[in-house]
Amino acid sequence: MIPDLGRPLLFVNAAQVVTCAGPARARRGAEMRDAGVLTGAAVAVVDGRIAAVGPRDEVERRYASADQVDCGGGVLMPGLVDSHTHAIFGRPRAEEQEMRASGLDYMEIARRGGGIHSSVRDLRARSEDELVSMAVPRLQRLASHGTTTVEVKSGYGLTLEDEIKTLRVIARVSSIVQVRLVPTFLGAHEVPLEARATADGRKNYISLLVHEMIPRVAEQGLARFADVFCEPGVYTVAESREILGAARRAGLGIKLHADELRSSGGAELAAELGATSADHLGAISDDGIRALAGSETVATLLPGTLLFLGKDRQAPARALLDGGAAVALATDFNPGTSPTPNFPLILTLAVSQLRMSAAEAVLAATVNGAAALGLAGETGQVAPGFRADLALFDLEDVRELPYWYGDHRCRRTWVDGRHATG
Ligand code: NIG
Ligand code: FE
Known about the structure:
Layout: E1 9-12, E2 16-18, E3 37-38, E4 41-46, E5 49-55, H1 56-62, E6 67-70, E7 75-78, E8 80-82, H2 94-101, H3 106-111, H4 116-124, H5 128-144, E9 147-153, H6 160-174, E10 180-188, H7 193-196, H8 201-219, E11 225-230, H9 237-249, E12 253-258, H10 266-273, E13 277-280, H11 286-293, E14 298-301, H12 303-308, H13 317-323, E15 327-329, H14 343-352, H15 358-364, H16 367-371, E16 390-393, H17 400-403, E17 410-415, E18 418-421
Parallel strand pairs: 1-6, 2-7, 8-9, 9-10, 10-11, 11-12, 12-13, 13-14, 14-15
Antiparallel strand pairs: 1-4, 2-3, 4-5, 7-16, 16-17, 17-18
Helix pairs in contact: 5-6, 6-8, 8-9, 10-11, 11-13
This protein binds N-(iminomethyl)-L-glutamic acid and fe (iii) ion (FE).
N-(iminomethyl)-L-glutamic acid binds near residues 86, 257 and 337.
């Protein structure tokens, strides 16, 4: 069947078209200074792809019969690419926010059986249908803020059945929501409590991950990436290397939760393995910064997480950027450490806390987010040949995207040229 790609579209009357155009790979260093801001420009979309970008009269002449979309003086830019979320979960964990306020630390809550363990108990008790109906409105909220591609991790199941159940939920949700989803297997999100309770439980769970879960997930085509929470108290560097080695052999791309709260060599491991991304990096070492800067691995920063956990430190974004690493931003949307669907708010934190420029933040949330998902050739740019994944914001200047913090300025989005939200 020929997919219905709709009639050609011509986007006109944008105060700015922010193209992020350039090489189809992660940007770094001086390449992050210019997000490609055009005025007086129009964008033509044919068959779900960008066909032309340029001065309005020129593009309008070539696409005279296209349906016009009036951007009403707003900012038109690539849809945001959120390359790190844990969007499939059951109940929210509001009680933990208060526990932290009263002095309990995130890892201490986990040691007492809360945190990720609490979401695991909850998810295991829910049906696939129930999880689908909880996830759909949450993903729609993410999309409503201008996000057009979302990576979604499993990791609250931690048994073969419950992890597969979660990945199936992602596949089902993907056929319901307009936003594009990229599934990641995170069976190594925690060591399940039942495995922590016996002497060789931990070893057996890792063996289950390596010999059964990863091969099965890959065989069924349920995930594009595998990820590990590499952190003191969760998985060690050696265990992470073993698990990710199995993922690589099974044909999955690899990602890492690295040096989130304490430095343990996670960033160095990501660079050594040629991981697609190393995420968090709140406690990355100087060696880790050098390792990422000298690698193709995208350093994905999640400033919402450290803010929400009440930490007084953020990832050393300037050292990473100035050292030449490819930096992306993402929400880390999850019930424990970052329950925000608002990606533009993450850009606010990037500028005000991580000291990034607005152009760096925009490129980190588009082109480099796409690179963190192996999609740099597909999405993240308003340039000929790229997917027509677009977001229109009620702003006159793209620098207002991080400026109006906590606001909801996204008017409409399109995914593959199809109207998605607004
Ligand atoms: O990215 N660090 C591990 N995973 C999540 C938190 C998940 C949770 O607390 O439920 C994170 O911060
Ligand atoms: Fe995470």
